[in-house]
Amino acid sequence: xxxxxxxxxxxxxxxxxxxxxxxxxxxxxxxxxxxxxxxxxxxxxxxxxxxxxxxxxxxxxxxxxxxxxxxxxxxxxxxxxxxxxxxxxxxxxxxxxxxxxxxxxxxxxxxxxxxxxxxxxxxxxxxxxxxxxxxxxxxxxxxxxxxxxxxxxxxxxxxxxxxxxxxxxxxxxxxxxxxxxxxxxxxxxxxxxxxxxxxxxxxxxxxxxxxxxxxxxxxxxxxxxxxxxxxxxxxxxxxxxxxxxxxxxxxxxxxxxxxxxxxxxxxxxxxxxxxxxxxxxxxxxxxxxxxxxxxxxxxxxxxxxxxxxxxxxxxxxxxxxxxxxxxxxxxxxxxxxxxxxxxxxxxxxxxxxxxxxxxxxxxxxxxxxxxxxxxxxxxxxxxx
Length: 384
Description:
Blueprint: E1 2-5, H1 20-28, E2 32-36, H2 47-52, E3 56-58, H3 60-64, E4 68-70, E5 92-95, H4 103-111, E6 115-118, H5 133-152, E7 160-162, E8 165-167, E9 171-175, H6 179-190, E10 194-198, H7 205-210, E11 214-216, H8 236-250, E12 255-258, H9 273-278, E13 284-287, E14 304-307, E15 310-313, H10 323-341, E16 342-343, E17 346-347, H11 354-359, E18 360-363, E19 366-367
Parallel strand pairs: 1-2, 1-4, 2-3, 4-5, 5-6, 9-10, 9-12, 10-11, 12-13, 13-15
Antiparallel strand pairs: 6-18, 7-8, 14-15, 16-17, 18-19
Helix pairs in contact: 1-10, 5-6, 5-10
């Protein structure tokens, strides 16, 4: 099979869907891997490394014309036409897709009879853990969020005893204890901060404590967790209780990182602008949920702003700010999924299989409505 790896064109995307490591493994299976020249440069992977691993370096048209196209982001609009038009009729696209917010994209894919494998739709079951790109990328995003905050925070994070006196440790609040939240807690703790964390699911308390955080508890009347381990949407009454708790904790915190996302819904608004204004000047708020509408009322997508002396970061796609390791992990997730499909006759999609049925949201142009279930962007590790 000819497998194409085009260069990503979204402005904030620096990852690539394959690496020399995964290219070699695909080539060893007898596949012809076509990598667009320059596809890995933003990830610090030169063309020569792909060539040494067995890839054929080609132009963009040839990479897009392959039977199977591997990407990170879904096809993007361009000045010279939409990238969907570069796909060969009847081919297969594997990438993050998020079909719920772009009906026009789905219609275009259907007209070309494309089979679409959505990486965000990998089911959260034990045997699919090594294919779970959402968790891989959320782990990086949580880590990077702490680094972004630390860069702007005008103080040390750890406690220091110096000849000139004692410097107290920074106080960090993490909202949401899924993969990104736990990664943020562990990172802030390693840097010496005192970390508190909140999640509506009491079941994650032990996970928070295991990575060094103090779990903030609140009484909620109904279960806050669904069967898949994701947080349920809170009721209006529950939301008010949560906001009050977070306000009181945030105003005494130096850094606040929010990660709360509910699959298929707008991100819950948990930190109001009044809370941000009440924080100490020099404090930093990082809203990891900004692409889903934001947990912080005043965060702006893709921007770093100041509100009453407090930095509010609404950066998108934080995993792409660590493109080398993010590409390595994503490419391995992709390879593991392809290996799951691989049989004696090459790649075969068995739609009766739970993993295949989950990721195949479109088959030969036919949308599979049952597969287009909402997926949380920052899932809880406790689901597995």
